[in-house]
Automatic annotation (TrEMBL):
SUPFAM superfamilies named in the record: AFP III-like domain, Aldolase
Gene3D superfamilies for the chain: Aldolase class I (3.20.20.70), Antifreeze-like/N-acetylneuraminic acid synthase C-terminal domain (3.90.1210.10)
The protein's Enzyme Commission number: 2.5.1.56
A Pfam family assignment: SAF
Domain AFP-like: 292-349
GO biological process: carbohydrate biosynthetic process
The species this protein was found in: Candidatus Naiadarchaeum limnaeum
Sorted UniProt keywords: Transferase
InterPro entries for the chain: AFP_Neu5c_C_sf, Aldolase_TIM, NeuB/NeuA, PseI-like, PseI/NeuA/B-like_N, SAF, SAF_AFP_Neu5Ac
Enzyme class, UniProt record, top EC level: transferase
Lineage: Archaea, Candidatus Undinarchaeota, Candidatus Undinarchaeia, Candidatus Naiadarchaeales, Candidatus Naiadarchaeaceae
PANTHER family to which the protein is assigned, alphabetical: N-ACETYLNEURAMINATE SYNTHASE, SIALIC ACID SYNTHASE
Entry protein name: N-acetylneuraminate synthase
Amino acid sequence: MKLKIGKRFVGDGEPCFIVAEAGVNHNGSLKLAKKLIDAAAKAGADAVKFQSFRADKLVLKKTPKAGYQKRTTGKKGTQYQMLKRLELSEKEQRALAKYAKIKKIIFFSTPYDLESVELLKSLRVPAYKVASADIVNIPLIERITKTKKPVIMSTGMATLGEVKHAIGTVRSAGNNKIILMHCISEYPPEIKDSNLRVMQTLKRNFGTVVGYSDNSAGLITPLAAVALGAKVIEKHFTLSRRMKGPDHFASLEPDEFKQMVEEIRTVESALGTEKKILTKAEKRNKRVMRRGIYAAVKIKKGTRVKIGMLAFMRPESSLKSSDYKKVVGKKVTKDIKTGQELKLSYFKA
C-alpha cells in the first residue's frame, strides 16, 4: 500500500518518509522556528512538523504538568501556563508554511483543536497528524478526515480496540489514506519498552502504511524500525538539548538528525529486495571460491572412476563439485594426470 504526501509517495516500495518533529521546540519564537526548518532541510528530512494549538482549547488552567514536563521545565506553574508560552499565532504559522516552501521541505502540523484544523486547511497542508493523546478524540478525527488529506495517526497509549475505532472513523468517511504510527508515550522510553514488532501487528490488522514515532534517545530504535518495515519515521529534533522547554531533552540535535537520515538510507540500501540475485562481486568471486572436479590420482585410460579418485578443489571448473555423479562409475577415454581438471568429454558410460 502507498499514498501521496505532497509530491512524495509514501509506502511499499518507497524510501522511508522522514519527519523532523519540531513540535514546540521553537519555544514560542518564530525566529527559532525558522531555524528549525533550516536545520531540518539541511539534515535531509522529507518534512518538518509543528504543533498547532490554543492552550485555552486544549487544557484546563489548573491542569498540572506531566511528569516529564516537570523534569524538563521545573515543578512550578501549570501545564496551561507552559503551553500558553509555546503557542504560535496564525500569522506565525502562515509565515512558517511559506518559509518551508522556500526551503523546499514539506510543512505540516498536528492540530489539537478544531480551529487549528481550519487554519491548517487554509494553509493547504498535504497531511494531518493525530497525536497519540487524541486518538480517542473522535470529533477532532472526524473534522480532520473531512479534509480528505492523508491522516498520520500515532497510537501511543492506545489499545487495539481504540485504534480500530479511530481507523473506522476515518474510513467511514471514505478516506483510506491512513498511516499508523507505533509510538511509546514516554519521554524518553526505555529501549526494552519499544516493542517495534507491534508495527507488523498494526499493518496486518488494519492494512495501512505503518511507521514509528520515536521518543527514545539515540538512533537504535528508528533504524531498527526501518529494518522491520517502517515507511515513516518521526523524530523530535532541536537546535540544542541544553535549551529550556518540555521536549528538547528527548530530541536529536541537527548533526545527529542528519546522521539518522544518512543511516536510515544506508539501512534501506542494505535491505534491498526480496529477489535472490548474485551481485557483480559474487559473480567475480564464484569462479575462484567454488570447487571444480580434478583428478586426485593418476587415472589410466579405460579405468572406471571411483569417487576416491576425485578431488574437489578450487577454482570452479567446467564440472562443478555437484556434478560428480556424472563421472563416477564411468570409464575415462584418456590418461589423466594427478591434479588435472576433469571434463565430461573425457568419459564414456
